[in-house]
Amino acid sequence: MNFNVDLKKMVRDAGTVVNRVVQLTGEKLGTSEKTELDAHFENLAERSDITKTWTEKLLKDTESVLTPHPGNRVEDYLFEKIEKKKPNRLNNLEHLGQDMIDAGNEFGPGTPYGSTLLKVGQCEQKLGKIEHEFITNANACFLSPLKKYLDGEMKTIMTERGILESKRLDLDACKNRVRKARSMLGQPTKEGPSPEYLLQQAERDLRVAQAEFDRQVEITKLLLESVSNSHSSHLRCLHDLVDAQLLYYQQCTSALQELKNEISNLFLFSNRKKMRAKVLCGYDARNSQEISLMADEIITVETISENESDYIMAIRGDQRGRVPLAYLEILPN
Fold first, then answer.
1. What is the dihedral of CA 235, 240, 241, 243, to 10 degrees?
2. Among 165, 118, 115, 149, which Cα is nearest to 319's?
3. What are phi and psi of 299, to 5 degrees?
4. What pLDDT does residue 303 have?
5. Residues of the chain under the 50 pLDDT cut
6. pLDDT value, residue 33
7. Residues ≥6 apart with Cβ < 8 Å to 141
8. Closest Cα partner for 312 from 288, 333, 330?
9. Engineered SS bond to 137: which of 192, 193, 219, 244, CB 3.0-4.6 Å?
10. Residue 253 and residue 127: Cα distance in Å, rounded?
11. How far apart are CA 120 and CA 82, in angstroms?
12. Which ranges in the chain belong to alpha helices (H)?
């Protein structure tokens, strides 16, 4: 019994699909009439299409800005689909910073070039971390809400519009059957149902199709009218994105300004006249600006300023600090 019911349903559904295809083909050939929706509905539908198109484009563009490497974007997409955590990969700034640090250690932390490489490398790594934070913030405040909208509300709108188009094709197919049945009135029939019966059946189907179409129009219209509310939500997301960018660039500017000051001082120190000195006796540093020395070791020194004749800047490996001049014997070059 269930098999017969399922078979009948399959036949009915197949007939419905055929009717829709015939109706759509006739519309394209200009041989069938098409039910038009009112201007207000069409405006709402157009606004929905524009919103979908531009939201998808803005989403794609933003992803390209946040993750420039296309391979990484594909990898992130696949991890997102299988609901796995994205890999913690180093960004370009962090790679650059690590190479600078390695090079600085190779050239020697006590050399001007080596010490500057270390400073710049550390800053590049800091900028890389700031970039990671910005990407995380931008994803949370802008990308995720837009993706959620496209996968949720907009997907529902497109689904209901597809149902509406099917209902519209069914309605117009019914209208064509009614017109055909009316054209057969008064004509003799040899066998089968009479034209009057076919007309009654076609009109009954038309009433059902019209009711289903009208109900689907109202459902779809309500969803389309909600697009304006979505624009307000997207506006807030846009403000949040700007705030995230502003914070990002402020943090970058602050880090770079701090680096600029540090390497400027290193440059000034590196241009001072360097001398060698022998430590006459051990010295223990009294504060963080000084360094400790061991008796009889040979170190590099340079003058601090004309106003500080009692102290000198000592360079001992990767250490740098002030020491009293009295503890040293300046060696001839």
1. 130
2. 115
3. -130, 170
4. 79
5. 1, 3, 5, 11
6. 74
7. 237, 240, 241, 243, 244
8. 330
9. 244
10. 10
11. 39
12. 2-29, 39-66, 70-81, 92-107, 112-138, 144-149, 155-183, 195-225, 227-270
Q: What is the 3-state secondary structure (H, E, C) of 88-121?
A: CCCCHHHHHHHHHHHHHHHHCCCCHHHHHHHHHH
Rounded Cα distance, 277 and 296, in Å = 10
* SS3 state at 288: coil
CA 97 to chain CA centroid, nearest Å: 25
* pTM to 2 decimal places: 0.70
> Using CA atoms, how far apart are residues 318 and 298, in angstroms rounded to an integer?
14
Q: What tokens appear for 306 in the block? A: 């004309």
Determine the length of the chain: 333
Closest by CA to 208, choosing from 171, 255, 250, is: 171
Cα atoms in the Cβ-side hemisphere of radius 13 Å centred on 9? 6
Identify which of 63, 98, 91, 65 has the alpha carbon closest to the alpha carbon of residue 77: 63
* Tokens (6 digits) for 181: 């049945």
Q: Return all residues near 253 (Cβ < 8 A) that are at least 6 apart.
A: none
Least Cα distance to 255 among 132, 126, 149, 138 occurs for 126
Q: What is the pLDDT of residue 27?
A: 62
Handedness of CA 274, 277, 282, 283 (dihedral sign): negative
* Calpha distance 289→322 (Å, rounded): 6
124, 94 contact by CB (below 8 A)? yes
Residue-wise pLDDT for 138-191, tens only, equals 999 999 999 999 999 999 999 999 999 999 989 998 998 899 889 888 777 677
Here the tokens at position 49 are 């299409």
